[in-house]
Amino acid sequence: MVFLIYTKRKDMERYLGMSDTLDTAIRYLVSADLTKLAMGRNEVDGDNVFINRFDYTTMPESEAAWEGHRDYADIHVVLEGEERIGVTDAGSLTAGEYDAAGDFIPYEGPVDAWVAMRPGDILVVFPEDVHMVKVQRGGPSAVKKAVFKVKV
C-alpha cells in the first residue's frame, strides 16, 4: 500500500505530530526561504533531517529510473519548473541490490500513479513508496528542486 502525502506547501503544518523528524522537516520547510539553499547537502538536524538541493532538466519516462529507500522518507519540493513523479508500492516492483551508503534501492516495474509537481506542490514519499523522478510533463523542463531527507 502506498502512503504518500501530496499537498501544497501552505498546508504542510497539518501533518505535524506524525514523527519528531518529520516535524523538524515540516517546520523548516514552512519557515525557510528554500531558494537560498546552497547546491548539494544542506544541514537541518545532522543525519536525521537534511536537504539535497539540485537542478536538472526533465526527461522522457523511458530514460527515468526508480528509486527507493529503507531509512529515509523524501519530501520533494519543486522550486522552479515542473515534472511528473511516478509512485508505486515497493511490493509491486522488483527490487535490485540495496546500497546502504546511499540508502538507495533500484527497482523495475510499471508506474501505478503519476503526481504532477509544480512550484508550491509537496510530495512526501515513505520507504514503501518507490518513486520515479525527473519525468517530463509534455516536454523538457528546467527544474530547481529541494529534497528533504527525513530519517524514519
Description:
By secondary structure, the chain is mostly beta strands. The chain has a single domain (5-151), classed as YhcH/YjgK/YiaL (Jelly Rolls). It is 8% helix and 45% strand. It contains one helix and twelve strands, in the order βαβββββββββββ. The strands form three sheets. The chain has a six-stranded antiparallel beta sheet. A hairpin with a 3-residue loop joins strand 2 and strand 3. The longest helix is centred in the first third of the chain and has 12 residues, at 20-31.
Highest CATH level, the class: Mainly Beta
Number of helices: 1
Spatial strand sequence of the major β-sheet = 1-10-5-12-3-2
CATH architecture: Sandwich
Biggest pleated sheet? 6 strands, antiparallel
Compute the CA-based radius of gyration. 14 Å
What string gives the helices and strands in order?
Answer: EHEEEEEEEEEEE
Q: For this structure, what is the CATH homologous superfamily? A: YhcH/YjgK/YiaL
Uncertain spans, ≥5 residues at pLDDT below 50? none
